[in-house]
Amino acid sequence: MRSKKTDSGTAAGQGELAILLEIRRRTARASQSGLRLGIGDDCALLAPRPGEELAVTTDLSIAGRHFRLDWHSPEAIGHRALARGLSDLAAMGARPVAAFLSLGLPRPLTLAHGRKPAWVGRFLDGLLALAAAHKTPLAGGDLAESPLAVADIVLVGAVPCGRALLRSGARPGHLLYVTGALGGAAAGLACLAELAGKQKPAQTQSPLPQPPAIPKKLAALLVPHLYPQPRNAQGLWLQRRGLASAALDLSDGLSTDLTHLCQESGVAAEVDSAALPQHSGATLAQALHGGEDYELLFTAPAAARLPRSIAGVPVTRIGRILRPRPGQPQITLLTAQGPQPLQPHGWEHFS
């Protein structure tokens, strides 16, 4: 992370250089596995282990699209921004090596207001806590003033050459699995929207929007949306044992992401609605179409012996892979009323 321009017009101690120095101070003790040189120079230097290739992913988080300043705390926004990229690495079975963060922020988000720390500092609290949990050093990025809050995350991972989990390896006869529970993020988002709609205007001098207070009885329901947990340990387990034939993460919803897998593998699929591990409080529609669960969806040959849980997270068989047939739906949902076509109704930009 480097500075291209100083901002002498910003309040003392809160300019671009001060923020960059604070980020560098807070990341100085991060795990350095695979990172030879981090923040301070024009580029970071990465050193994957012999026999590894790099996996690189990038994700944008944009105010008003991926988060709302009046709904989400800065800590949750930082956590979610990094979780998106970590989940992509999990789906490939890659171990995280380094993260890069580019931030575009309105000036008020860089300033402390009264006794409250600056929004950007709290954003980093959430991001760096998740980075530490996954031993992923923040190795660089960029910082600029922007009329809109934007966080662009680049994640670099490493995977043994030729061993990455892909979307294209599913074959007819393979079985279909998911980790964890589905629909929790969508249920949490609906709950958060309801809380925000009931919130009275805050009596505060802060120029920033204030997220709604979360009652203790609803805290558990909101966790999957506010603090999703990427399944990196599970992805690494599957890759190292060579059990999964295809995989991806559930970021856009089961119906949409399974469509991606079927298209890349040239197959069809059958999903048993009764087998879906619905999150407590989630509807069947939310389990099928709700995005941002960041669970792993993967296939494995029928002969593969999979445990009931991987690194403490349940694994559930939800269906099977079929040979595509002309005139038949690509994905069929088995219900008590009989088989039904399952159309992709998850998240899609520009739709």
Description of the structure:
The chain has 351 residues and is of the alpha+beta class. It folds into 2 domains: 16-160, 2-Layer Sandwich (60s Ribosomal Protein L30, Chain: A); 175-187 and 226-341, Phosphoribosyl-aminoimidazole Synthetase, Chain A, domain 2. 28% of the residues lie in helices and 25% in strands. It contains 8 helices and 14 strands. Strand 4 (95-105), helix 3 and strand 5 (138-145) form a beta-alpha-beta unit. The longest helix is centred in the N-terminal third of the chain and has 19 residues, at 74-92. The protein starts with 15 loop residues before the first helix and ends in a 10-residue tail after the last strand.
Whole-number total of structural domains: 2
**What gyration radius follows from the Cα positions, in whole Å?**
21 Å
- Classified by CATH, the class of the largest domain is Alpha Beta
The CATH topology of the largest domain comes to 60s Ribosomal Protein L30, Chain: A
Structural class: alpha+beta
Largest sheet, in brief, is: 8 strands, mixed
Mean pLDDT: 90
Specify the number of helices.
8
From the N-terminal CA to the C-terminal CA, the straight-line distance is 34 Å
Percent of residues in helical segments?
25-40%
What is the CATH architecture annotation of the largest domain?
2-Layer Sandwich
